[in-house]
Amino acid sequence: MKIYSRLIATGLLLLSGFSFAHSNHKTDLIDQPQQGFGELVIFGGVFTDTGNFASLYGDLPGIFWNNRFANGPVISDYMAETLGLSASPSLHVAGEVSEPMGTNYSMRNAWAGQSGELNISGQVQTYLASKDYSVPADSLIFMWAGSHDVIEAITTPAPLPYQMLDDAVFGIEAQLYLLIDSGAQHIFAPTFADVGFLPAMQRRGIEARVTEATDYFNRKFSRMLNRVERNTGQRIYRFDFDRYVKGLVANAGFYGIKNSVDVCVEQLATGGCDFNSFLFMTDVLITSKTHKLIADAFTQDLLHQVSYCKRGNYHRRTKHHLCPSN
Prior knowledge:
Blueprint lengths: L1 H34 L3 E5 L8 H6 L17 H9 L36 H11 L8 E5 L3 H9 L6 H20 L4 E5 L8 H6 L2 H26 L4 E3 L1 H10 L8 E5 L14 E3 L7 H23 L3 E2 L4 E2 L5
Parallel strand pairs: 1-2, 2-3, 3-4, 5-6
Antiparallel strand pairs: 7-8
């Protein structure tokens, strides 16, 4: 009977301790939304462009929603909505504004490894100039660059131009240093995904080349992020986009995607296109449904990293903490 009583007492004590710890953990998570991010600043390409390309080249055809390269909102729209922020286009390339209108500088076909106003370096430069080179500590920098460089490398006649991929990684690294030197404390930088499953790549039969280029870029990209963290002491939030996409495609049905092979718009004439159940809108673009799935994964993983960072993150390579000080 005494043993049984001790077991009950021990169980209650453990339960009490668990509840206390669990309560503290919930408090940590509650603190972050109260503080939150002050702005969402996006540097990227086609999947996050919310109107900059159209502001320069003209409105997109009616099948594209609100000058997005999808049938509805895109990743940046969904992320901004979840975070309570804005993904409005900067319109910095339109030539009609003296300063950026929004904080989304993304532009379709933006190069990471080349200079120019339309490319990643130009996007970052325009943003920093608008802030007098002082990034607010609560700004969330979403750096998703290099996709155009990888695609161009893939579609360039053999042999694979590794220098193009190296230039892309070097270009991103240079912009990260500029942002961190200007005070950026929250940077989210996902990898690229093996897009060999895209209908356009399948039809060309170049899946192996896609994999080779993607693996090379991601390996160099990850090492670069390690180097930036080591040299600056600033943590960078990461996301293995390649791994996520492979899981999404393999388990598409569980996400409500009934067709992960065909191009939706090619079945519009026959009435077989349901954007809410297709993975692909065109042979190179994904549906808004897919954009939302990716955005949800990005946001959830990002906030998990932020929460983890608040509890302390000792970085083995740099031998000190990399989390933002604010």
